[in-house]
């Protein structure tokens, strides 16, 4: 085992250590340490990706002194490494572009604490990507819940408090369901590591014992993780949390954290239960129909918003719907398309939240559309970035969103008649709806403002922020142009994954 | 059916308690009651776990008098899980209480619906 095999473990440990060290640092040092850690994690994850591209199969990494059926381990394959690279890249860019305006929302004294929460969130995301142990996954689900609630709550006003309380309550309900599910699964199989679990589940399935408990377990864990990632009927907490938290927190929450839950769910389906049993339990149909409903309803609700940040928040609900629709197809192509959509959405959504903040702040902090008129001229960079990321959300060619939709549509072709028609119609309708509200926003930020309105003098935006926003924009465009290699990595990664 | 429920009385009770806690956390408007619901819910899960690990007639897995065969002891893994779970639920209770204190200082009520109503009337800065 070479040094590079240890990199995933190093990334996790590094984030946790940074969290501890940050607690005694001054705000400035905390900021630089957090930036440095996310950059190092990005580098190490990219190195892991390169390593896994050379390997034929994924490898396990023992944590602690107990071997497989009892101990704890992480498992590293192409897919995990790709996702870790993508998420840490998005997080790094979000930090570079977002940290400079955090003093608007966080007092100087609490800034280090905010940085700790970012470190912990990154650590938990990495653990959820890599872990091979269901209970470890549960513990880090809880850590990420606390961290993300703290990321939202730093902004001290009534709306944020209420939103964060709602967020916490919904997440606690979901955690309860997941924990009960894991407890029941442990009860019928006696394992927590994923490989022995899958063997035990197969055996149970073949003998026909515990058929009902197994279905209950699948339902509990699926619904728990669906609540946490804001799938449509369970999305009630999402819009307020995204709209009233600091923009950077919303970018992290919507771009990265919600995706980590979905990745865990995919892992649960593939590695613990097995897709054939999932199909038998019809939970994939449930996710499919919820996803389709979310695509349409999220967009419909986004159209009815008068506040730009709430609109962006509702569009997240719609985009998560796409991911679940791909997942609900329960085919290799569908899941691969869902994973691609996760990457495309992570890149574009964080950009969207950050550029929205810039546009709002040059318009006297008014979030209504009519006060945003001309914002695209007052902050040219933010205007361009918002336009490109909105295009990705709508699914205009040469952006990540377009390719994701294309893959979803082509994954639908082998499906049965009714489902295929439903996917294609839903994609068409939701693209149309996305176009309605995003293009409306783009038009309104480039519309000439009323003559008599006085805007506050534009604050200076550091050059590195503009650079970070543009790099992220290029990522979105790259996902649209150079999607071939990424898709090949996803597909071969999925084969390694199972 | 009833026979099976009675034979697994601990699990039956645990799931019923879980349901009670879940509904309280979901539906009660009072924040303190919600927190109590949260604790009922998580404690129910611990009962579920602990009762699964218990094997009738065996002892806690602490080696005394040199008895090292596993056959004499109960399964220690669920106990470990319960301990981890307790830590998690304590921290969540702390977090919820902190939020509740902040909300109460600001709005002088514990009713989440009233609080949401009052927050909506505030101007968003």
Characterization of the model:
The complex is a heterodimer of chains A (498) and B (125). The mean pLDDT of chain A is 89. Chain A has helices at 7-22, 27-54, 78-98, 111-130, 134-153, 158-189, 194-207, 211-228, 238-244, 247-273, 275-281, 283-303, 308-328, 332-361, 375-378, 380-394, 400-412, 417-445, 463-481, 483-497, and strands at residues 59-63, 72-76. Chain A is mainly α and 498 residues long. In chain A, strand 1 (59-63) and strand 2 form a beta hairpin. Chain A starts with 6 loop residues before the first helix and ends with a helix. The radius of gyration of chain A is 22 Å and the shape is globular. Chain A is built from 20 helices and 2 strands. The longest helix of chain A is centred in the middle third of the chain and has 32 residues, at 158-189. In chain A, helix 14 (332-361) packs antiparallel against helix 19 (463-481). In chain A, strands 1-2 form a two-stranded antiparallel ribbon. Chain B has 125 residues and is mostly helical. Chain B has a single domain (2-121), classed as Helix Hairpins (Orthogonal Bundle), CATH 1.10.287. Chain B is built from 5 helices and no strands. In chain B, helix 2 runs antiparallel to helix 3 (31-53) and helix 3 (31-53) runs antiparallel to helix 4 (76-107). Chain A binds chain B through residues 70, 135, 139, 142, 145-146, 149, 153, 157-159, 161-162, 164-166, 168-169, 172-173, 175-176, 179-180, 183-184, 186-187, 192, 244, 365, 367, and chain B through 11, 15, 18, 21-22, 25-26, 31, 34, 38, 41-42, 45, 48-49, 52, 77-78, 81, 84-85, 88, 91-92, 95-96, 99-100, 102-103, 106-107, 112, 115-116, 118-119, 122, 124-125.
